Amino acid sequence: MLKSCVSIVAAACVLGSMPADAQTAARAVPTFSKDVAPILYGSCTGCHRPGQIAPMSLLSYAEARPWARSIGLQVSRGTMPPWHADPAHGEFINDRRLSVAEKDTILNWVNGGAPEGNPADLPARPSYPSGWTIGQPDAVFAMQEDYPVPARGTVEYKYFEVPTGFTEDKWIQAFEVRPGTPSLVHHVIVFTKAPQRPRSAEPRPEARGPRPAPPFRFGPNMDEPRDEKVEAAKRAPNNDRPAPEGGMGSFVGGFAPGQSIRVFQPGTAVRLPAGSTLIFQMHYTATGTAATDRSSVGIVFAKEPPRQEVIVAALINGNFTIPAGASNVKVDAEMTMERDLTVWSLMPHTHVRGRRWEIKVTYPDGRTEMVLAVPNYDFNWQTDYVFKQPLKLPKGTKITTSAWYDNSAASKTNPDPTIDVHWGEQTWQEMQFTAFAFTIDPEPRQTTGAGQP
After folding, report:
1. Predicted model pTM
2. CATH second-level architecture of 127-194+249-303?
3. Which fold has domain 214-225+310-442?
């Protein structure tokens, strides 16, 4: 008992001899269990868990502690969690940035020796049903084969058909695309393909009526110049999984590095027509080792038909040249609204020479607004930026997207600074591509005369 009292008194004397700020620091060192784990569970373990794209798991203290210094460095630099939009332009539902308080907590934990604390303080681990970030899907569709990807060479886009068997329209509230072998997969885009009608069911030409006009008009001279050699290569018989005849239908979901899920806001959803076949457009990259892939998509359906149908389209400029050695080349694309639209999200995309993006809207009254700026675009962390307040774009509004490219030898990601670069599907070529999700606003009610509705 006497020893205990002496120890307590000695400890009190030591603390009493410390400066006040040192005493506060000694008491304030965060612990993993109480302070850090809740941040990691909320912002990091969606990727940092077994089977996901991150190189290590951060679900437990034993897993996180060896990486404490690295965690502190990445957090202090702002590179983790990955988020590349300039906060001065737009607010986004899926903003992954940590708050100042969260950053301070992690850095103080690291600088304080990264203690574990009391395991009893540890919150419950987040639940990831069967590995799905969106929760348990209502339906999962996978490629119907393990497709072999060679060790070397250029792999042209491959297309795989997967029937849905649905006899009625479905509405997609959320999707998650999971590459079977992530190291092989540059991207996945899942489209629909409408069921083929028997010839007898085709309506007579006079009964079809006019096709609806598109709700926007693209700017001039943005189409990729036709190259007969490229076109011949696309038709070559050596592509064992060519694009389906008749093309593809609407967008269902997609995967690119850093982006694999989307949850649409309540009251909005993407339509999956009855009888549709899913088309997996697969872009594989040879890694030096032969392997196979079987990618899949999980879908959560809306509980009832939405008030608004979400449509996903792309604004593209395929007509550009990035000269060899040029370090700062700007390429624009533009379109003008032909209807009142609401834009819910924007996803800019280039390949490895892309450096930054700016997206502006010019309203019919001449006012211009920057709606998204990505000053440090990272091909390895692509993002679908979902607006907190969707953009209301009246008829006549123009969207201009601008991308900058570095084709110089100073770029560490440039595969060949000695060649001019044009639009192309392969990573060593380039794209100026922005996917956007939108809904069409209702037409104003027409009046037929005074006093009539």
Report:
1. 0.84
2. Sandwich (2.60)
3. Jelly Rolls (2.60.120)
